[in-house]
Amino acid sequence: MQGLIAAYLAALSIAICAWVLWDYLRGKRELMSLRNVFLAGFVLFQPLSGAIMLATGGWGAFLPSNPVAAGVQFSAMATVFAVVFIFVYDRGWGARRLAERLPRPRSCPSDTALMFVAIMAMLIAVPLRLSVNIPLVATLAGLLGGSLAIAAPALALWVWAKRPLNPVVASLTAIIFIVCFLTIVTGTFGRRGVLALGLAVVWVLYFARWRYLRPQVALVRIAVAGLIPILLVAAFTTVREHSSIAKERDARAQVDALRNARLWEGVQTMSLGQGVGGISMWLIDVFPEQFEYRHLHTLYYYAVYPTPRNWWEDKPFPLSYEIPFLALQNVERGNHTTAPGIVGHAAAEGGWYALFVYAVVFALGMRFLDDIVLHGWYNPLIVVAVVGGLGQTMGVPRGDTAVMAWLMTAAILATWFVFLCAARFFDAVSASRGSPTAVASSIPGATPRRT
């Protein structure tokens, strides 16, 4: 029976991917979108991970009392979440109107101006990410620095995509990319920054060039470019140390470690989805029979997450911190984390009604962000503003969902504010060239897809 459930979950994963591809081929949606990045994370960390867990039985400490019953309910909840998410995203109730009212960069800077912004973003990112040690301030500085370290090479890549044979542009782009990559990996354990940087490469090349090609041609190029984030994350996966050790690693130590990366081992590890699907099934099994519901705790924790814990001694822990304590009992809260998956969040935070709420909230959130990009598809300052949150976007379905969603929001807002200031500066000194209409009309076949 577990094999049949695993087969269904694998088929569900294929069906979601096929739907995304069909939406693109019939010209309804962009292939590169926040929705699709979110769904990629959902497929990897929920149905696919669950299928692997049911097929292999590697439950560890999170074995449900009845794996078949938990697997059936998990399959049903994953299916309903995907259906509701896609349905609500397509309807987009109010998201488009809200996106149109958001203050946005009106200027579409010249290539020279874009490269200048990329260099300045890099120069700001390095000290913010690595040199600020003031408590609390360091957290915010690191967040802004990390976001700009992803946005800077993305802007440079936009310029390079239009003139790939220009040696000066190519050299500057390479330098910015390398400096920002080293900035991102220095003193870090998490892989989301590396993932976001790799995804940003594909994102920018798609919007700068490939979205104007025939879909069949664009798909081949995206498939090849998609190896960049996969290989970057696979390499980093096999060499990263425990978080306490990783914080002491400088750029040289990280580069030395990456030389010994085992790519195939990293790809295999990534494909397992960190066993998140199995943990979601365990949560389905124990809530609410053994533990009380934490009703819609994800939404609550998203609101209170920015409050420093040393300012609020009784600040609640997210579900990812509670799971090891609940499962093992001899683990102190807050010392270990275990990703629950978005279905697991719903199972522990109200059951079916929580699942519907989370599907609606995140569908409208992704639609809002995608509409922002689509309404400014001609302007790199708008298209690139969201790339700092791509890694977190893919991590939202994995969890901890509240933390990932807040970091995604903060990264996008921080980059958006910096780019908005840059656009206002270019307006003030008349450095912008042409109107959005003029820019759009200069690109052959440059028409936005239906929204």
Give the structural class.
Answer: mainly alpha
Mean pLDDT: 85
| Terminal-residue CA separation | 42 Å
Name the helicity range. 55-70%
Number of strands: 0
Which radius of gyration do the C-alpha atoms yield? 22 Å
Number of helices: 23
The main pleated sheet reads as: none
Could you give the order of the helices and strands?
HHHHHHHHHHHHHHHHHHHHHHH
What percentage of the residues does DSSP assign to strands (E)?
Answer: under 5%
- Which oligomeric state applies? single chain
Rough outline: globular
Instruction: Show unreliable segments.
Output: 431-448
Describe the structure.
The chain is mainly α and 451 residues long. The chain has helices spanning 2-25, 34-45, 47-56, 67-91, 95-101, 111-130, 137-162, 167-185, 192-208, 215-225, 227-239, 243-246, 251-258, 263-271, 276-286, 297-304, 319-328, 341-348, 352-375, 380-383, 390-395, 401-428, 436-441. Helix 6 (111-130) packs antiparallel against helix 7 (137-162), helix 6 (111-130) runs parallel beside helix 8 (167-185) and helix 7 packs parallel to helix 9. The longest helix is centred in the last third of the chain and has 28 residues, at 401-428. It is globular, with a radius of gyration of 22 Å.
Question: What's this entry about, in short?
Answer:
Helices cover 69% and strands 0% of the residues. By secondary structure, the protein is mostly helical.
